[in-house]
């Protein structure tokens, strides 16, 4: 038996209609249509208990799987951590000197990074789907006082910002995401510029705002600039690895992020102090 | 149960499966694109028009649960369903391995098309060296779960209503 050709004519108007509807939705999405976001968030919130249950069920299975098939990796990781501990002990004095230098540099500009009010969040993993490069899912959301745009940090500095905040989960866009933008300040030269994520390089690039003749040294500390930025000022971002001194037109300063996500389980979300001064009742 | 309820049940079940079972099973960071699979199979079993409508709603649900801009997957999936449907007419007499290959190509096309549209909105770099690897892993994992899904999609999109094709070859019957 063979298939009978189907009437294709009727499908074309349907397809055009659906494509037009999708394009309209995309346009509305990028214009910030509130009902669309509410619809998306509503679906995710409805599915959240199912996802949590699924994660609870899967966790022992995943642990058993890793124990069975990733034993070599675990052993290598254990050895790596032992080596790192030995190195850390050996470099303690150097580390203290570096810390002093950082504190001195930060102290010059009255940086008060460590006193920022934060909420500790646990990393759940990558968000659903295969579009989650440079993103992480964490276990707290609106119910814990989090809002979109809040800075996410570790003890070493900025990691990213909250991109999507649902009731009990949030998605963090990492600072290395190619679409990530933030205002930064070079602590040594006091120049301010705009940094973007470097994508697969894992670095940040300051590609706007820094004068071509500004003296920038390799190793110089970079912090958030504050001001009109949504991030609080003076959160450590990283250190300059390539000041691009030879640039004649477009200067691109490469920054190595200080905060590493390797082997991290928890992050801190910086609460907006202004908002919490106004609405202390929402604080948890 | 009417046709619409069957499709609704299919889409809701597929969405729950996407964010639970298939999200937990990741290989090299990639997971099954279950709603994409449902869209392709809806085009295969249900014909271009019905397939496109099912694929559109599958895309909307995908956009909701994966936090992509609303309409991104809904833009890609219907075209894919229609293309699959037209190809299905030509591939009706081919064998299961051949249809499996066709499904793999359709899934790869869907992943890459979504990535291409997503790159316009800064979701993913097309030059990302991990994209090809992700696509290959997604295709393998998604095709692996296609046989049972194919039966469920056929039950949902053809049940209770007259279908566009009432005669099918043996290869197409068991395909997917």
UniProtKB/TrEMBL annotation, chain A:
A GO cellular component annotated for this chain's UniProt record is: plasma membrane
Keywords of this protein's UniProt record, alphabetized? Cell shape
Kindly give the Gene3D superfamilies that the UniProt entry links to this protein.
Answer: Rod shape-determining protein MreC, domain 1, Rod shape-determining protein MreC, domain 2
* Any coiled-coil regions, as ranges: none
Keyword Repeat present in the record's keywords: the answer is: no
Which InterPro entries does this UniProt record tie to the protein? Answer: Cell/Rod_1 (IPR042177), Cell/Rod_MreC_2 (IPR042175), MreC (IPR007221), MreC_beta-barrel_core (IPR055342)
Annotated Rod shape-determining protein MreC beta-barrel core domain residues:
126-270
Name of a matching Pfam family: MreC
Which GO BP terms sit in this record? regulation of cell shape
Concerning its family, UniProt says: Belongs to the MreC family.
What is the name of the protein in this document? Cell shape-determining protein MreC
Species: marine metagenome
